[in-house]
Structure formats: structure tokens, C-alpha cells
Description:
Blueprint: E1 5-6, H1 7-14, H2 18-26, E2 34-35, E3 41-43, H3 45-59, H4 64-73, H5 81-118, H6 126-132
Antiparallel strand pairs: 1-3, 2-3
Helix pairs in contact: 3-4, 4-5
Amino acid sequence: MSKSYTIGELARLAGVPTSTLRYYERAGLLKPSSRSEGNYRLYGERDLERLRFIRAAQATGFALDDVTALLDHRHATASSCHEVQELIRHRLEEVERRMADLRHVEEVLKGALATCQKTEKPGHCEVIDQLDHTTGVPPKSSQPRRSKKNP
């Protein structure tokens, strides 16, 4: 008979809080293998492997919707490799957009710091004045995000 883990044991083995496991269950990523007589969630070795795969995919930068797709391809044939490549390309494009946004923010902050240092007056800050008169310009790429929030 294979080893069974409670939600707390599985969480400890994976280094995540139990709330993460419950979230994954609600999201359809991880389901208990069975329930105890007291209706407690029970997980097996395959669930632990699946959880580690989910965490590794997230650590690589994949959003949970991508992880769902990767899980679908995990035990598929080699023909699924093309679809995985598409997921990777999409994620890479997302990372590149975010990096461009961050570079833009970095430049804005550097400019604001230079303004502060150049125009420093007691009781007055030029950057505050500029922010007061700004309408809130979105970052350069300002394209909609596709990823779901990762716990």
C-alpha cells in the first residue's frame, strides 16, 4: 500500500502552506487522492510529484493557467512539445514586456531622483509638484496581462 499524506504533511514536504494546497484544489490543479473516515484530505506519492511539478513550473515563471496546460501535456506524446514551445514563447513575450515596463519605470525614477537632487529646496519638492499635475500615464507596453495571480 502506498503512503498517504494529510494536507499538513504534504504541505510540509513541499514547503508550502496548506492554504496553497487548498487554492490549488479550488483551481483544479491538485485533488486529494482520497478522504479519510473523518473526511480529511489524503494525498499520495503521485500527488506529491504533481505538486512539485506545479511549484517547479511556477518557479520557472509560468502562471497557473500555463501550469494547467503543462500538466495536460506532462504525460502526453512528443507531439505536445510544439504546444509547450508555444506556452514558453508566450511566457517569454510576457517577461520581455514586463522587463520593458520595469526599464521605463527605472528611467522615470532615475529622472525623479535627479530632479530632487538638482532642485532641492526646503519645504518644496519639484517631484511632488510634477506628480500633482500628472494624469497617470500608463507604462510603455501597457498591454493586458494574461497571467493569473500565483499564490
